[in-house]
């Protein structure tokens, strides 16, 4: 498994990316023990519980919940433990509410519990971890004409439980990217020690947005991939390095082989000697050959790779989803055969056709001298509700409307590249019965020597698949997570997730409705649960 990177410099430089289209008391925590069986071909062993819990038992926390709409969230902090937090209903002053934060060690024992008053309309978006500090980004829910002032950055010193809101004594800074529809995007640099910030534009133009960004604490600069939209179907792409005042220190044009191709997602990995490898996905928009009509410009047709060597783009390669070795796992082998026949009949290449998926892109992983890129495929899901109404004359008629259920995840593509951007292999995992109201990563990937594991949590089960490059070692298989008691029955699971914690340890959490008819009282309960798992080959 790839080791976590730890910052060696004194300053911790957080970076966050925003897109603006417009801008009760702590529950008592109960430690629960249960037994868990998992992957065929792999073993999941539980961290030993405290002394009075029995040997070889996994650790589990259950918090009684009133509904699945409550705001419990978890931030893994490596060997420092993890932080569980939620917004309470307690009013703190005229316009503030209390948020509760609890830190647990690696044995799921509480280290500290604190409440922090935050402005009532703040909504949590996401977080990033530094060496020993977590940065949480909150955004005002009200519309704002000045997006760079519509956020709050809360930092937590994990071990001490110290909270800092945009000010403090830590030698650190933050870079926040803001994309605003119809305007040039901005990067906001926050000097956390002084409590000051400055914003600068990405460049000249009416529609410029940042697709990816990463700060460099040593040089106090920010590298970014920037998209300048020229027309509805034409964009220019640049790899740019800005200093803290917005002065461009380096700019590389990312050339495109075909104006029909547009980069939809970009990730960048650092190579040796200051070079970079750009990986991501590209789309065709509504270009000819698409298997769908009126394709949104943010849908993806395939993967791309482009090494940047000596401040210049070396090459750029495109890999249509249909040309991947495991393309038949995405749409079915018969469909791929039919498309190949259609392309042959019309004397076209298969690359001129496309599948057009919405994808959620992971960060690049460096494993076994390869650069691993994972993309999860999803689409919004709706259901129709109808009701009977009456017109002016009293005649009944049916009125229908669509209700958003969430995002249904279908598949995850994983691909390995060398440092020159050559595609070495590709594989995927089917995602079943997973609908989420949040667009967050569902699939966890990690290596076990020369093998690669892909897994996810859904409906109280774990789906897993083990691969070695293009080869499938263990097909997709599901294992049920055992509950607390033999008589417990899982009725439903909402917002379930599996995340990497540290080493070969993982956290499984989510809302679970559990029924136990053997209990005389309270035989049905809704809880937010969190469990510690250890994976072994």
Description of the structure:
By secondary structure, this protein is mainly beta. It has two helices and 37 strands. The strands form eight sheets. Strands 2, 3, 4, 35, 36 and 37 form a six-stranded antiparallel sheet that branches. The longest helix has 13 residues, at 333-345. It is globular, with a radius of gyration of 25 Å.
Quick structural summary:
This protein has 537 residues and is mainly β. 3% of the residues lie in helices and 56% in strands. The longest helix is centred in the middle third of the chain and has 13 residues, at 333-345.
Low-confidence stretches: 1-14, 18-56, 167-171, 286-296
What oligomerization state is this entry in?
single chain
**pLDDT average, as an integer?**
79
Per the principal axes of the C-alpha atoms, what is the gross shape?
globular
Counting helices, strands and paired strands, the structural category is: mainly beta
Largest sheet: 6 strands, antiparallel
What is the count of β-strands? 37
Q: Helical element count?
A: 2
Amino- and carboxy-terminal Cα gap: 11 Å
Q: How many whole angstroms does the radius of gyration measure?
A: 25 Å
Classify the helix fraction into a percent range.
under 10%
State which percent range the strand residues make up: over 45%
């Amino acid at each position: 498994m790839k080791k976590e990177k730890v910052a060696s410099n004194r300053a911790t430089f957080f970076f966050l990316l925003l897109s603006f289209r417009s801008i009760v008391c702590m529950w008592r925590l109960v430690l629960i023990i249960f037994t868990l069986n998992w992957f065929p071909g792999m073993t999941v062993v539980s961290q030993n519980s405290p002394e009075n819990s029995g040997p070889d038992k996994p650790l589990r926390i259950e918090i009684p919940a009133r509904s699945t709409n409550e705001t419990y969230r978890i931030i893994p902090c490596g060997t420092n433990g993890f932080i569980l937090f939620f917004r309470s209903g307690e009013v703190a002053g005229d316009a503030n509410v209390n948020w509760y934060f609890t830190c647990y060690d690696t044995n799921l024992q509480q280290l500290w519990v604190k409440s922090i008053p935050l402005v009532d309309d703040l909504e949590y978006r996401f977080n990033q971890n530094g060496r020993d500090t977590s940065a949480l980004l909150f955004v005002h829910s009200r519309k704002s004409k000045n997006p760079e002032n519509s956020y709050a950055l809360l930092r937590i010193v994990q071990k001490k439980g110290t909270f800092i809101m945009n000010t403090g004594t830590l030698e650190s800074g933050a870079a926040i990217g803001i994309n605003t529809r119809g305007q040039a995007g901005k990067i906001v640099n926050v000097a956390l020690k002084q409590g000051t910030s400055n914003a600068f534009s990405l460049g000249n133009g009416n529609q410029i947005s940042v697709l990816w960004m990463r700060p460099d604490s040593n040089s106090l600069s920010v590298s970014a991939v920037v998209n300048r939209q020229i027309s509805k179907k034409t964009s220019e792409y640049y790899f740019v390095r800005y200093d803290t005042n917005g002065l461009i220190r380096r700019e590389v044009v990312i050339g495109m082989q075909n104006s029909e191709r547009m980069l939809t997602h970009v990730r960048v990995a650092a190579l040796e000697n200051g070079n970079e490898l750009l990986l991501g996905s590209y789309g065709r928009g509504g270009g000819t050959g698409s298997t769908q009509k009126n394709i949104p410009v943010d849908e993806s047709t395939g993967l791309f790779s482009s090494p940047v060597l000596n401040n210049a783009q070396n090459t750029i390669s495109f890999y249509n989803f249909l040309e991947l070795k495991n393309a038949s796992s995405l749409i079915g082998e018969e469909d791929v055969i039919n498309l190949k026949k259609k392309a042959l009949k019309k004397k076209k290449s298969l690359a001129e056709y496309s599948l057009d998926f919405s994808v959620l892109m992971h960060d690049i992983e460096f494993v076994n001298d390869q650069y691993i890129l994972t993309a999860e495929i999803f689409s919004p899901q709706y259901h129709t509700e109808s009701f009977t109404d009456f017109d002016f004359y009293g005649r009944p008629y049916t009125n229908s409307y669509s209700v958003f259920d969430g995002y249904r995840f279908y598949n995850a593509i994983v691909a390995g590249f060398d440092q020159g951007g050559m595609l070495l292999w590709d594989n995927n995992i089917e995602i079943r019965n997973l609908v989420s109201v949040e667009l967050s990563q569902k699939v966890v990937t990690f290596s076990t020597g020369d093998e690669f594991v892909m897994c996810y949590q859904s409906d109280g089960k774990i789906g897993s698949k083990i691969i070695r490059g293009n080869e499938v070692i263990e097909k997709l298989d599901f294992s049920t997570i055992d509950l607390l008691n033999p008589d417990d029955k899982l009725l439903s699971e909402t917002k379930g997730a599996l995340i990497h914690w540290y080493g070969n340890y993982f956290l499984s959490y989510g809302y679970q409705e559990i029924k136990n008819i053997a209990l005389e009282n309270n035989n049905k309960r809704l809880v937010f649960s969190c469990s510690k798992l250890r994976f072994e080959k």
